[in-house]
Amino acid sequence: MAASSSSSISSCSHSKQPPENDDISRLAPGISKDSVLLATNSFADICECFNEQCEQFHRVKHHSGSISELGHSLSREGSQPIDGEEATEDTDLEQDACFVIEENNTENHDDDFQSASEDPSDAMSRSIEKLRLVEEEQEDIINNEEWQSKRKHVFILSEAGKPIYSRYGSEDQLVTMMGVMQALVACVQDARDSIRCIVAGARRWDLVFAIIIADKQLVTMVRMRKYSLHPVDLHLILNLVSSSTTSFQTGETWSPICLPKFDSSGYLYAHISYLDDKCNTCMLLLTVNRDEFFTLSECKKKVLERLQRYRCLEAIDVAIAEGGCRVSQIGIADLRHFIYKSRSTSQFVCAKYEAPYTIDAQWERLFSVYQRVHHRIHTTSRPLKILFYVGVHETILGWVTSGFELYATFSPLVTKPVAIAAVEKLLRWIKREEDRLFILKSLTF
Amino acid sequence: MRELISKVVMLGSQAVGKTSVILRLKGSRFDKHVSPTIGASYCACKVNLGHMEVKMQVWDTAGQERFRAMAPLYYRNTNAAILVYDITSYSSFVDLKSWVEELNGNVDNPLVLCLLGNKHDLEDRREVPTEEAFNFAASIGAVFQETSAYQNTGVEEAFYEVAVRISRLCDSLLRLNSLIENGNNTNMNDVIDGVLGHQGNTHPHVDNMDMPKCC
Question: All domains of chain B, ordered by start, with CATH?
């Protein structure tokens, strides 16, 4: 805190914005409407208002607890199985209603992390519930005993979802069911993926989140479309993993876990395992069903096999070894360090510490200055949009817009115009690299 | 060869060496700095009995008190419980009595019990006399074995004995209830379900367990 006595703070309040701002702030690098995480203004501040997406989530969430909601749909299916399918569950997997819909499979096998969600057994299970509900309501041929007794059905439908052929019964009687199938196909196509298989009956999973973590960072996440992960919950998971590394090394761990933002009134069950011998990469599979361990254990094997086939684990190791972006590589002369947070995705980029911040005492001081600038900007009584902080050891420009929050550190002698020009350049760089720096696409099932 | 799938749970106070025993069973080296288990970790091991291979799905549970409430999640439908204490800690031995009571109260299935006195290498700090532990094991019909995960003694013997007991339990359930095994892969819990369905009550007919013998 040596800097505090001699530092001067000059701030621009709302009215005094630098002229170039509007153009740049519209850039908002790392922006995404389809975020893997819920967007929040601050990790710690849970009382802040959320953006529209979050509000929607909360309406859903408060309507009923997420876990009980998921559990309810399970128990309902358990107690009132659709005739015909009931008999098949224990005896013969082949008898399970298994609709294979052939689409033009333009699968992107090169996309490493996409592949985790491409597994047909993985992504498609969610929707059968809907199908069953429709079946329940329906009076048509689906409830016909003779139709149900057939071991294998073949349905052909057009890309638009019109029934073309059914092995048993008339296509016309299957309009509703095929409509549901078409809806499923469309849902998946929305996510720029293609459906290959819908699995019904006993083989469906109750997975809610699948998360891969390396070096205290989220590598990728697949989630149920309906549920998002709150940064606070992710923070808990990251802490659990990083503080218990050696406990999870022994093999596969199975443990209940409460994610308070997801549902504070219940537990999810977590299958936790490391994917490599060096224990760099950890995978968590979260479900609502406590009996799902062996299913998830199988699932882990499949995911691991895929990741190995496409050499993803090596790629993760390389990324960790590189350790984030270096300011010196960006080529902005006066810039020493920065932290950039994309608000819509709740993700941030923090530059690697370079001289003079390679010494612990130095970066600790830097962070206490960041803390002070952050605190000043977010003061509830008089929040600021821009703060130009001149200290003895460094100058920090803090800038908050609706899309991002940026703290950039310069040498103490930098002038305001130079700092602003540098920040402008930095934003352009982040924008250019945004696919690499942020997880912009959200994988759902 | 016939394969019998069974579920086994490891229970006991914290720091008695449950994870170290499992690591030895998996063929790993002894590690002085094993971290406390969180929830439970899973390990599959196979014991070859000659006429039958017993596949044990072992749940190594967390011993820390704060995880105690989770235990029922792991011992539900278990076929064997391995109760581990530390021979240098009398309280860890006393704790096993409450585990036995809890299992008796909550597990309806016939169950193979095994008492493991770990840290046998620390003889000079012994607090639990072998005879007392042996008598307790006898009173609950459990396999008894003193082990040292550090020196890797007694671990394989104990799991072999548990596997033998599980296979005997399976055979006696099948025989006494006149059930016929189908196929080469048998799951203990399917056998138990079969027995329950067959008899229409919740207390399957079980052979009297052999008295434990000190190894």
Answer: 2-199 (3.40.50.300)
Q: What is the pTM of this model?
A: 0.70
User: Are A290 and B40 inside 8 Å of each other by CB?
Assistant: no
Please tell me the distance in Å from B18's CA to the nearest CA on chain A: 12
Which residues of chain A does B73 touch, with a Cβ-Cβ cutoff of 8 Å? 256, 290
Q: Does residue A386 carry a pLDDT above 60?
A: yes
Mean pLDDT calculated for residue range B1-19 = 93
Pairing of strands A163-166, B112-118: unpaired
| Mean pLDDT along residues A267-279 | 92
Buried b (16+ CB within 10 A) or exposed e, B103-118: beeebebbbbbbbbbb
What pLDDT is stored for residue A187 in this prediction? 66
Pick the CATH number of A205-321 from 3.40.50.1240, 3.30.450.30, 3.40.1710.10, 3.90.1170.50: 3.30.450.30
Quick check: bond before A356 cis, omega within 30? yes
Nearest residue on chain B to A243, alpha-carbon basis: B35
Average pLDDT value for residue range A117-135:
40
| β-pair type (A252-257, A268-274) | antiparallel
Percentage of chain B modeled with pLDDT above 70: 89
CATH 3.30.450 fits A2-43+324-437, yes or no: yes
Which tens digit of pLDDT belongs to each residue from A393-410?
A: 999 999 999 999 999 999
Q: Which residues does chain B have within 8 Å of residue A290's beta carbon, measured at their own beta carbons? A: 73
Q: What are A221-252's pLDDT values in tens digits? A: 998 888 889 999 999 999 999 888 788 887 89
Q: Which residue of B has its CA nearest to A293?
A: B42
Interface check for A73 against chain B (CB to CB < 8 A): the answer is no
Residues in A touching B19 (Cβ below 8 Å)? 250
Residue A360, sorted as left (phi over 0), alpha (psi -120 to 50) or beta, turns out to be alpha
> pLDDT at position A26, please?
65
List the single residue in A240, A245, A251 with the smallest CB-CB distance to B41.
Answer: A251
CB contacts, 8 Å: B40 with chain A:
253-255
Return residue ranges of chain A for CATH 3.30.450.30: 205-321
What are the DSSP calls for A384-430, one per residue?
Answer: -SEEEEE-SS-EEEEEE-SSEEEEEEE-TT--HHHHHHHHHHHHHHH
